[in-house]
Design goal:
Strand content: 25-35%
Number of strands: 4
Largest sheet: 4 strands, antiparallel
Structural class: alpha+beta
CATH class: Alpha Beta
Oligomer: single chain
Length: 100
């Protein structure tokens, strides 16, 4: 089992474009032995301490194997809509991990 955490930072005013991409990308996780564990929209009030800017969203996803994650990233249907991701996202911090 591998876990993927993403801190997602958006271009200003691109929330609806980002949501269009997510409407396609999130359901495709299931096709590759994955599961969306959390999708969180934090705000400044929930951050106790830190040196990072608050992201627009935080995603925590699990996949059965690294290969499942790679297959998800190469999904042809998802790739057709990457232009929405590129238009709406300023940056992503992706963290891979395992359960200890």
């Amino acid at each position: 089992m591998i876990f993927i955490t993403q801190l997602i930072y958006l271009q200003e005013g691109q929330e609806s474009i980002f949501n269009q991409f997510e409407d396609i990308a999130i359901p495709s996780i299931l096709k590759y032995n994955g599961k969306l564990l959390l999708r969180v929209r934090p705000n400044e009030n929930v951050i106790v301490e830190g040196s990072l800017e608050a992201p627009y969203e935080i995603h925590l996803v699990e996949f059965a194997t690294e290969q499942d994650f790679d297959n998800f990233m190469q999904d042809e249907e998802r790739k057709k809509f990457l232009y929405l991701k590129e238009q709406s996202i300023k940056s992503v911090l992706l963290i891979k991990g395992i359960k200890l």
